[in-house]
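re the bet — no i am not wrong, look at it urself. input seq straight from the record:
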Amino acid sequence: MEPWRVIVTDGLQDTGLNILERESQVVERKGISADDLMKEITDYDALIIRSRTKVTRQMIEAASKLKVIGRAGVGVDNIDLKAAKEKGITVVNAASATTIAVAELTIGLIFALAREIPRADASMKRGEWLKKELMGVELYGKNLGIIGFGRIGSTVGQMAAAVDMRIIACCDFNIPETIRITGGELMMMEDIIDKADFIAIHTPLTEKTRGLINKETITRMKDGVYLICTARGGIIDETALLEALNSGKVAGAALDVFESEPPINQELVNHPHLIATPHIAGQTNEAQKRASMDIAREVMAALKGEKLHWKIV
């Protein structure tokens, strides 16, 4: 039997590549265009991607040998899951590899918003002394609303509880007892929108969650609310957010993800009350090492017909 052939299109650390190379032939094509991948995909048994590569229905239909698609991260919204399922292609991810990294960035952004750390730093570098202008807020006793209380959301909740924030959460799949054990209080999303001082988004991007935070939901929020999203672009309506930042309804926001990446709404990115980061939530050495190892093992298990830990379809 010929060795399995695996194509890696968005890069993978050596720890993962080494696992793959023990039992398969690996080809790295970092940055490959969609057109070129369409031409080459017929040669491979497995495809490993990150967020850049879009695996469309057309690509899946062209992939005559493909048995498994691996996402070296959490979100799989860049894969046509329906098309993969119809063709019998297994889709797996590295669901827990970046949990700590994403949660830590979220907490960092909450602190940065509360104390205007980026503005303070930028002003000092310009030779300014804005001590009187930089009046922050304390996190102690504030309501942190977490929309999506899975692995990442619950980890954020545990970290925020350490500074005595009150954690209120909603989630489609966690039972109330699970939320309570991990330090949160279950609420309907409508109640979170009404009561939260800070709102952190940790839900996947689906048809249900696209535009979840919009003009209507923002209108119902507390005046001076803070919004943080390290999940997926498109969950927050960027036009509505910009309007709310301009009016002061939203005191500050922090986005690591955008509707288009790189973002095209520069007015939003440049807003003085927005902290923008370039989709770096999972970008730590430790998280990327875990992700590369987890996805390599999962892809090889799928090829060999063994038990899977992170199967999506």
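see?? The chain has two domains: 4-97+285-304, 99-276. told u. also The chain has 13 helices and twelve strands. so pay up
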